[in-house]
């Protein structure tokens, strides 16, 4: 460790962490830790977390009741790996009981499309203003320090807009423009004017909203090249490599992925190499498990991502099953950041099950978006394990039968599946909320309509 990470008797481990991080000089960052240093850091955090929730939460005390090991630094991992997984359904039904500290200053709600009861996560004032900002990712985010940032993420009920707003503002001294995403006062046309008038350097938004903004800009004769973006962060939705390349071409700017969720907040940040998402290992302890058996998997093996929040006082989550599929890569990255990289493969419940296999929607999107005849909007319709792809032309002069044949040929080359293609003049857009791409209901449409 750069300095010994210790705490005084009866000192809250998060306060000890804050004091420790405040001793870092401008060149020191958790992004530069060796694996041995990260293991020591995680040992300190996990043992402190387990002790904290055991002593202060009847909910967790009950959950830990049948576990053998005691909560102590020297056997924290033995104890930790016995802890039952947490799930979204558990949070939905027990969110008030799961708050270890009841002095909640802010509650946010999931913006997900999975249906079912809402998911709520509460944060204390200390979480928002003391603990969460304590960990800085100076190399991965330092390039935007003092920038003018347009935050085109939802602010209503969601945590995404608020988290990035305050993180960039407080930790990186950015001028934040809360342009929002499809709310009552965040019309895309007004958002573009706001961004143009204030000469933004950085845009944070979802992949599909980046496309929506570009379409409105074209309609209003706004040249996006005049924005002179240095950085475009994509978050909130997954994206394939070929779709993000389209976004980069449209905005004349390289993109980086910010990966997070309501439950875990920031999970990782992609470096300029675009070869995986560097985990926010100061915030989280991450495992990969076999989704059927719960067995912990080695690095490089694809499984479900499980996270434990390390710096949360109000509602810490222990071994939370995210539903995201991917694997961890600990090989050295040439960018110099030493944290593990997460390579995502979609979500468990979003995998498309067809007659001859199961596919990530982003794998299929990648195949589709390589075809320059196809526009930026599409939908996958599944009925009886058969796939119909609804697309629109990239321009109105292209023959629709030519588009359909090209899409069918490309998918037949990559998949052993029979598919159908519907080419409409325009695929329905979603200007607010998360975009839905996958439909399991029957779709009636006529090619060339």
Automatic annotation (TrEMBL):
Record bears the keyword Nucleus: no
Keywords, comma-separated and alphabetical: Ligase
SUPFAM superfamilies to which the protein is assigned, alphabetical: Acetyl-CoA synthetase-like
Enzymatic class: ligase
This enzyme's EC code(s): 6.2.1.30
Keyword Ligase found: yes
InterPro entries (UniProt xref): ANL_N_sf (IPR042099)
Origin superkingdom: Bacteria
Recorded GO MF terms: phenylacetate-CoA ligase activity
Annotated protein name in UniProt: Phenylacetate-CoA ligase
Species of the source: Metabacillus malikii
Species classification: Bacteria, Bacillati, Bacillota, Bacilli, Bacillales
